[in-house]
Amino acid sequence: MLKIKEFRFKNNIKQKELSLILNVPANTLCNWETGICEPPLEKLIEIANYFKTSVDDLLGITPGDTA
Q1: Which residue, among 54, 8, 56, 52, has the nearest Cα to 32 in the 3D structure?
Q2: Could you tell me the CATH number of the domain that includes residue 8?
Q3: Residue 64 domain-assigned?
Q4: CB within 10 Å: which end of the chain, N or C, has fewer?
Q5: Residues of the chain above pLDDT 70, percent
């Protein structure tokens, strides 16, 4: 599960603010956070870079996880 909301809260960033940074509608970001749909890979990378983390961490993947 995506941890976008968790990273937003840790960094005290409002959903609207992050949506502007990512250049996506706020409802799109909301859909990503609630799992209605998933962001494209390029946006995952952009979000991970913004929060200075890895895509794996953003996705909640830990070393040793298997598909």
Answers
A1: 8
A2: 1.10.260.40
A3: no
A4: C
A5: 94
pLDDT of amino acid 1: 66
Mean pLDDT by 10 residues, the chain (67 residues): 92 96 96 94 97 93 72
CA distance 49 to 67: 24
* Whether the Cβ atoms of residue 59 and residue 7 lie closer than 8 Å to each other: no
**DSSP character string of the chain:** ---HHHHHHHTT--HHHHHHHHTS-HHHHHHHHHTSS---HHHHHHHHHHTTS-HHHHHT--TT---
